[in-house]
Specification:
The protein is of the alpha/beta class and about 230 residues long. The chain has helices spanning about 10-25, 35-45, 60-65, 85-95, 105-125, 155-165, 175-180, 190-205; strands at about 5, 25-30, 50, 75-80, 95-100, 130, 135, 140-145, 150, 215, 220-225. The two termini are about 25 Å apart. This is Stage 0 sporulation protein A homolog. It comes from Anaeromicropila herbilytica. Keywords: DNA-binding, Phosphoprotein, Transcription, Transcription regulation, Two-component regulatory system.
Length: about 230
């Protein structure tokens, strides 16, 4: 499920947008000022940002400028400003689209879908995932750590791709088993535990200075926070 952040200080507008996008099947989170919105972008991974310009504490253009130093997710600007010069400036800063208030919720929904589809296609044509010094190539099905090509089994590679494609997500053993083995989980977690142990051993052998996969006891596995 694609994850969208809305940074909009008008609570009614924020809620209307959220309800529309949740009904479209997205996971949606809201921030109501610039500082908390930027913090959320730095702490969690999102697939798209809907961004107001006039925000408390930190303006939308400041957020956009900072965001583009660490993320290339699609950004749709929502603003009451209808000046061509403003639109041009924000597009040059890295915005992907600009919608003037008041707007039609159906149009916002359509533009969100279009930009997420383009972003997805871009990822398909550029299938390189990077985490710390780990590089995964989805075309070649290879994982390189610290410049060393890992000798992984098919299941180990699939686990690594699952984690790296969802770098902020926690996966239970059930999630992993049913995603990788494509079978119903019947309570035996030895398969997941064994493959995870072998995978960690190979990662540690390639670079013992870094930690890559962490266990959240009683919940599952995820990539370590950077």
């Amino acid at each position: 499920m694609e994850k969208i952040l809305i940074i909009e200080d008008n609570k009614d507008v924020n809620q209307m947008l959220k309800e529309t996008l949740v009904n479209d099947g997205y996971e949606v989170h809201s921030s109501y000022d610039g500082m908390s919105g930027l913090k959320e972008l730095k702490l969690n991974q999102y697939d798209m940002l809907l961004l107001d310009i006039m925000l408390p504490y930190l303006s939308g253009d400041q957020i956009l400028r900072e965001l583009r130093t660490f993320s290339d997710i699609p950004v749709i600007i929502l603003s009451a400003k209808d000046m061509v010069s403003t639109k041009i400036d924000l597009l040059k800063l890295g915005a992907d689209d600009y919608i003037t208030k008041p707007f039609d919720l159906g149009e916002v929904s359509a533009r969100v879908s279009t930009h997420l589809r383009r972003s997805h296609l871009h990822k398909i044509t550029n299938p390189i995932l990077i985490y710390k010094d780990l590089v995964l190539d989805m075309n070649l099905k290879t994982v390189i750590v610290n410049g060393i090509l890992l000798d992984l089994t098919a299941k180990e590679y699939q686990i690594m791709e699952l984690l790296m494609s969802n770098q902020d997500k926690l996966f239970s053993k059930i999630n992993i088993y049913e995603s990788i083995w494509n079978e119903e989980y019947l309570g035996d977690d030895n398969a997941v535990k064994t493959h995870m142990s072998n995978l960690r051993t190979k990662l540690k052998k390639a670079n013992g200075e870094n930690e890559y996969i962490e266990t959240v006891w009683g919940l599952g596995y995820r990539l370590c926070k950077k």
